[in-house]
Design goal:
6 strands; alpha+beta; three-stranded antiparallel β-sheet; 40% helix
C-alpha cells in the first residue's frame, strides 16, 4: 500500500484515480499471507470494489473443479466451469488446496472415463495410487459410487471451510471401523483427521465452538462514537462493518 504514495511509483489513470478518491484506511490483522489473501477474496466478492483486483492469474481465473461424473475428479484448472462445481481463489491458494486435498482424501488422479460399463468390462486397472493408499480403486469397482460420492462431498465441505463437519463425519466412521475391528482402515481415517486438523488453510479462528455470529463492539471518546460489527462464520472472521457517529447528537435526540 505504501507504494501508492511514493513519487514515480504510480502509473496509469486507474491508480491515479483510485488514489484521488482515498479518504482513509482500515486494516484487519491476519496471521499469515494466505489468511490475508482469503480474507481479501471474501471482501472483494461481497463489496465488489471498483478499483480492486479481479483475483486473476494472468488472463484467467484459477479454479478447483469437481467434475460431474459417476466417480468425479477434483483438480486445479484455469478454465471456468458451472457453479457449484467450481471454486475460485488465488493461484497460490488453489495450488496449496489441491495439493492438500490429494494428501488427505483418496480421490482419483487419473483421467479415465469410469462408469459401470468400463468397470464390468475390466477396461482399466488400478495404478500406483491405489497401492500407496491414495486412491480406493474406483476404476476396478473396489469402492461403490455412493461411498466415493461421500468422499467427494467431504472434499467440497473442506473447500468451503467446513472443516469441523468433515472431522465429525470422519471421526464417526473411524469409531465404526474400530468397533468392527478394521483397525488398519480406522488408522487411515485417523491420519486424515490429523491432516485436516494441522492444515493451515483457514482464516483467523476466534472461537472454538464454530458457531455463526456477529460480534458488536462500541467505543466512545468525547463526542465521538464508533461501532464495529465482526462477521464470524464457523469461528472464523470473514469481514467487518463499522459505523461512526457524533455521540452528542444521538444523546440529545
Amino acid at each position: 500500500m505504501r507504494s501508492y504514495f511514493q513519487a514515480g511509483r504510480v502509473e496509469g489513470p486507474k491508480l491515479k484515480r483510485l488514489i484521488s478518491r482515498i479518504a482513509d484506511f482500515e486494516i484487519i490483522v491476519t496471521d499469515s499471507e494466505m489468511e490475508a489473501l482469503i480474507l481479501e477474496m471474501n471482501l472483494v466478492k461481497e463489496y465488489k470494489p471498483r478499483y480492486n483486483v479481479n483475483l486473476k492469474d494472468d488472463k484467467s481465473f484459477p479454479y478447483i473443479r469437481v467434475t460431474n461424473e459417476p466417480y468425479p475428479r477434483i483438480f486445479p484448472t484455469l478454465r471456468s466451469c458451472d457453479k457449484p462445481l467450481c471454486f475460485r481463489a488465488y493461484r497460490c491458494v488453489t495450488n496449496a488446496l489441491a495439493k492438500t486435498i490429494g494428501r488427505i482424501f483418496p480421490i482419483r488422479s487419473c483421467n479415465y472415463d469410469i462408469n459401470e460399463e468400463t468397470i464390468r468390462k475390466g477396461k482399466y486397472k488400478v495404478c500406483l495410487d491405489y497401492h500407496i493408499k491414495k486412491c480406493d480403486g474406483p476404476c476396478e469397482g473396489l469402492i461403490s459410487e455412493e461411498e466415493y460420492r461421500q468422499i467427494v462431498n467431504q472434499v467440497v465441505n473442506f473447500i468451503n471451510g467446513r472443516d469441523q463437519l468433515v472431522v465429525q463425519e470422519l471421526t464417526e466412521k473411524m469409531k465404526d471401523l474400530a468397533a468392527r475391528r478394521k483397525f488398519e482402515e480406522a488408522a487411515r481415517i485417523r491420519d486424515r483427521i490429523k491432516f485436516i486438523e494441522n492444515f493451515q488453510y483457514k482464516q483467523k479462528v476466534v472461537t472454538d465452538d464454530f458457531m455463526d455470529r456477529d460480534v458488536v463492539a462500541v467505543a466512545l471518546e468525547d463526542e465521538d462514537a464508533c461501532g464495529v460489527i465482526f462477521k464470524i462464520r464457523e469461528g472464523k472472521i470473514i469481514g467487518r462493518q463499522h459505523y461512526c457517529i457524533l455521540w452528542r447528537c444521538v444523546s440529545e435526540a
